[in-house]
Each structure stands twice: as C-alpha cells, then as structure tokens.
Automatic annotation (TrEMBL):
Residues 34-154 form the VTT domain. The chain crosses the membrane at residues 51-77, 97-119, 131-157, 169-191. It holds the Pfam family VTT_dom. Coiled coil: none annotated. GO terms for cellular component: plasma membrane. This is DedA family protein. The keyword Transmembrane applies. Keywords: Membrane, Transmembrane, Transmembrane helix. Signal peptide: none annotated.
Length: 192
C-alpha cells in the first residue's frame, strides 16, 4: 500500500498530472483505496492558478467513477461489488443497510462524498439498492464538488500552511457540518 501511495504522490509533478488525477478520481469512486486528495493537494500547491481546473477534473472524474460503482452494484454486485465491500470490511452490513438505504440515500451519498467514509462503498450500495439514478448523480455531483472545491479553495487562499489542517481535520469538519445539517433538518421536521 505504501508503494502505491508513493507512486500516487510522485504523479503530482508529472506533466500528465491532470490525467493521472482524473484516472485516480475515477477509479477511487469504485475500487481504488487512495483518495484523489493525495494527488490533488500537491498539484494545487504547485500551481495555485489551476486550483479550480484541478478541482473540476477531480469532481467530474469522481462522479463518472461513481457511475461505474453504481453499475457494479446494479449489474454485478455478487461478482464484483460484494468482494470490494468485503475487502473494505463492509459486507456484513449489507442486509441492514439495504433496508434503510434508499430512505436516506441522498444523505448517504452526500455524507460519503464529503467525509473520509469510502465513497466507493456508497456508489456500489446505491446501485445494489437501485437508488434512483437522478438522486444518486445529483447528490454525488454536489458532494464531490463541495469536497474538492473546498480543498482547492483553501489551498489557493492559504497555500502550504493549510495543508496539515486539510490532511488532519477537514474530514472531521465536513463530518461535523453534515451532522449539524442533518440535525437541523430533523429538528425542523419535528418542530414543524
């Protein structure tokens, strides 16, 4: 795993970095274990003027990769999706997850799209539970854009000093934000 991580980091300096970012963002949404941020962060630090382009490439490729994950869950869950979920230790949760997933599918995709939770698990489960494709795509686009554009914006505005914060705490900040957002909606639901 360390060699794979080192290879990913080394790609940030290559002249094909955007293509490698697109590839990693695409396959991370369905199978790859290393998130695109690992490559995106050094790319934005090296070329802050390209921050929005880098975030856009990561977003589009990740959503397209999410469609692959959705397809794995929908068309090939037993052959491909289940082994991937087993690899990430999520296979035992499938039955209970399926029962409530589509009721909270929007939130599941949003949460996985912006937090450190593996996005690939949600993309595969979205297909497996036959979540409406429009709901999946819309939420995946919002979530991934939010994640990648916030990272790009922070790096563009603050440079290298913000890198440690992003790597250590941004996932926690996103998780807290989503928890507050969900809590607010639940509160409004019960008050109204």
């Amino acid at each position: 795993m360390r060699r794979l991580y080192d290879w990913t980091m080394a790609q940030a300096d290559s002249r094909n970095a955007l293509w490698v970012l697109a590839l990693i963002s695409f396959i991370e949404a369905s199978a790859f274990p290393i998130p695109p941020d690992v490559l995106m962060i050094p790319m934005v630090l090296a070329a802050p003027h390209r921050a929005w382009l880098i975030a856009l490439v990561a977003t589009v490729a990740s959503v397209l990769g999410g469609l692959l994950g959705y397809g794995i869950g929908f068309f090939a869950f037993e052959a491909l999706g289940q082994p991937i979920l087993e690899f990430f230790g999520k296979a035992d949760k499938m039955a209970e997850f399926n029962a409530t997933f589509n009721d909270a599918g929007f939130w599941a995709v949003l949460i996985a799209g912006v937090t450190p939770f593996p996005f690939k698990v949600i993309t595969i489960m979205s297909g497996w539970t036959a979540m409406p494709l429009a709901t999946f795509l819309t939420t995946a686009m919002v979530a991934r854009a939010l994640r990648f554009f916030v990272v790009a914006g922070l790096l563009r505005a603050f440079g290298a000093p913000i890198r440690d914060f992003i790597e250590r705490y941004l996932g926690l900040v996103f998780t807290a934000f989503i928890a507050l957002l969900v809590g607010g909606f639940l509160l409004l639901r019960y008050i109204g």
